[in-house]
């Protein structure tokens, strides 16, 4: 089981901590001093799928030298302002075939990424892959 907590510190700032005991600062004020909880959700999605893709590319013995996953999220009007559409961008460097990347991203999306599976309850998740030098 994973446990987590958020402790209010001042104004609209909170310190979040989970079972791993690593803390993170969050801010919900107009003038942000840290990431918002909804930004952290997108970061979690990027980290989850990046981890899957790296593992899959390693198993396939693809010679990648870099991977960057970014996300743009659109939210619903009103509350709760859930994500309704998220676009992921995978930028991969090295000698990686397009098919290997497509397969890795699909496996992450359809089988392995828990964050993606949760977010797909409210958001359409699309993606694009870019090969860089």
What can you tell me about this protein's structure?
- This protein is an alpha+beta fold and 133 residues long.
- It has three helices and six strands, in the order E-E-E-H-E-E-H-H-E.
- The chain has helices at residues 37-59, 98-112, 114-119; strands at residues 4-10, 13-18, 23-27, 63-75, 83-95, 124-132.
- The strands form two sheets. A three-stranded antiparallel β-sheet has the order 1-2-3, with no helix packed on it. It has a three-stranded mixed β-sheet with strand order 4-5-6, covered by helices on one side.
- Helix 1 (37-59) crosses helix 2 (98-112).
- It is globular and about 50 Å long.
How does the SSE layout of this entry go?
Layout: E1 4-10, E2 13-18, E3 23-27, H1 37-59, E4 63-75, E5 83-95, H2 98-112, H3 114-119, E6 124-132
Parallel strand pairs: 5-6
Antiparallel strand pairs: 1-2, 2-3, 4-5
Give the neighbour order of strands across the main sheet: 1-2-3
Mean pLDDT: 97
Helix percentage range: 25-40%
- The SS-based structural class is alpha+beta
Radius of gyration: 17 Å
Amino- and carboxy-terminal Cα gap: 41 Å
Main sheet makeup: 3 strands, antiparallel
* DSSP summary, beta strand count: 6
Bulk shape: globular
Please report which band the strand proportion falls in: under 5%, 5-15%, 15-25%, 25-35%, 35-45% or over 45%.
Answer: 35-45%
Number of helices: 3
The SSE order reads EEEHEEHHE
Unreliable stretches: none
Q: Which descriptors apply to this entry?
A:
single chain; about 130 residues; alpha+beta; three-stranded antiparallel beta sheet; three-stranded mixed beta sheet; 6 strands; globular
